[in-house]
Please model this.
Amino acid sequence: MRIIIELVYLVAMVYAWLIVARAILSWVRPTPGTTFYRVDRVLVGVTEPYVGLFRRLLPATRVGGLSIDWSSLVALLVLLVILQVLGRL
Model:
């Protein structure tokens, strides 16, 4: 049973880092056709099912002419809480 918990912990940790990478890459607009663009698309494709759940619950905050999307941050925080719980099992 311990091996399963450790495996789930490892997968969740990798997924958390993918969410962080996606959030960082969202600050720039990659040019279509480049490797950077393909990496961005893969990250969005892998993380969107989970982050999208939080995006539906939390609308973006308008600050002047900017729109701040908190869904990645909240999704990451929830995942980190789950990691803490798994780490204590």
